Amino acid sequence: MTLLFFLFGFLLSTTISNVAAKDFCIADLKGGLTPGGYPCKSLQSVTVDDFVFSNFTVGTPNQLKMSFTPAFVEQLSALNGLGFSLARVELEEGGVVPIHTHVDATEVTIPTGGNFTIGFISSDNVVYMKTISEGNIFVIPKGLLHFGLNVGKGKHSAIYVFSSEHRSLQVVDLALFGSNLDSNIVAKTTFLDIEQIKKLKTLFKGSG
Ligand SMILES: *[C@@H]1O[C@H](CO)[C@@H](O)[C@H](O)[C@H]1NC(C)=O
Ligand SMILES: *[C@@H]1O[C@H](CO)[C@@H](O)[C@H](O)[C@H]1NC(C)=O
């Protein structure tokens, strides 16, 4: 009888810890981000709050008239290892999303209000562009340059899903005009006028 209890208890405890360990890997943010994600928090320190992000609200708009609230693994540690993340975006009337790319993530746009013109440019330079509103979903394949404009009256809002727990972001204007790449090299390699480059370097706080 004692042996049975012992065996049952042993089976139960190993089952519980194994199942839990395989079910999720809550990010230990202090462990640092590696190419394989964050290390897992110990199961003893996991609570229900690791699965909840309570601040998925609209924040204050930036210079681009855009509020961007990420729900990446840094905000929602349960996303660690799950291969996706989210963001909530609101764009004031006339606001734009400058041309940019996420080399590590496909993006899904789910508009929840307003009229939004969104598009991407394929690697063979074909433009795929459409004005979308609530009820539409638009997919931007991984790594392609894309952009958006609020073309409606009033605010445009959307939920974004990315196929990465913390998607990377490279904005073309910032790479060219917000960096310290020498203006003469920017002019030669983009075929733009040097005066225009100097203007944009000032605007995007670049140097060189
Ligand atoms: C919630 O988000 C806003 C901006 O998006 C930020 O200012 C605030 O500190 C956040 N609150 C918490 C509890 O994280
Ligand atoms: C969006 O476009 C439709 C069709 O042109 C129009 O009826 C609607 O008023 C527009 N909505 C906004 C918020 O601009």
Automatic annotation (TrEMBL):
SUPFAM superfamilies on file: RmlC-like cupins
Region forming the signal peptide: 1-21
Keywords, ordered alphabetically: Apoplast, Disulfide bond, Glycoprotein, Manganese, Metal-binding, Secreted, Signal
Residues that, per the record, bind Mn(2+): H100, H102, E107, H146
Keyword Glycosyltransferase: no
Taxonomic superkingdom: Eukaryota
Disulfide bridges in this chain: C25-C40
Pfam family, one: Cupin_1
A GO term, aspect molecular function: manganese ion binding
Record-linked InterPro entries: Cupin_1, Germin, RmlC-like_jellyroll, RmlC_Cupin_sf
Family the UniProt entry places it in: Belongs to the germin family.
Protein's UniProt name: Germin-like protein
Organism whose genome encodes this protein: Lupinus angustifolius (Narrow-leaved blue lupine)
